[in-house]
């Protein structure tokens, strides 16, 4: 980490054991993703309950290369598990770790990029039997059924209309799993 972690305690005296636990959690994040440039943690005890224990709020703010920021907080108003400060710390760092994992996947290029939907023209429509065939731009025929048409729009389809579709291999050849009029 380029800068030392900044840990603040609001409305409470900072116990050494709690500070040590937060530092351990920060080290776990650094082992997972070693390019964190800054980390700020705020621990607070905003409620003053007399019948039940006080609920702790914990916030983690991470800064990554390129100015990307990750923010995680656990401040649930009725989660009495957060009467225990260690549970609140565990939960917020788990949330921060999940967000950091998502960001690491994006940086590595592991995030799926969906291809644009294919386009075709309705070549044949057999309305009385609830199916039809699409003709793709490369001349292939793709079967589709009434159930694959978006928004129950099968009855509105006409031969020659352009549609977007998703395709998979069926028992008898290619079939459209999703058809949407353009």
Automatic annotation (TrEMBL):
Is Ribosomal protein tagged as a keyword? yes
Q: Which UniProt keywords apply?
A: Ribonucleoprotein, Ribosomal protein
Q: Start and end of every CSD domain?
A: 117-181
An example molecular function term from Gene Ontology annotations: nucleic acid binding
By its UniProt entry, which Gene3D superfamilies does this protein fall under? Nucleic acid-binding proteins (2.40.50.140), Ribosome hibernation promotion factor-like (3.30.160.100)
SMART domains, per database record: CSP (SM00357)
Q: Which domain of life is it from?
A: Bacteria
Question: Which residues span the membrane?
Answer: none
Q: Which InterPro entries match?
A: CSD, CSP_DNA-bd, NA-bd_OB-fold, RHF-like, RHF/RaiA
GO cellular component terms listed in the entry, alphabetical order? cytosol; ribosome
Name of this protein: 30S ribosomal protein S30
Which source organism? Hyphococcus luteus
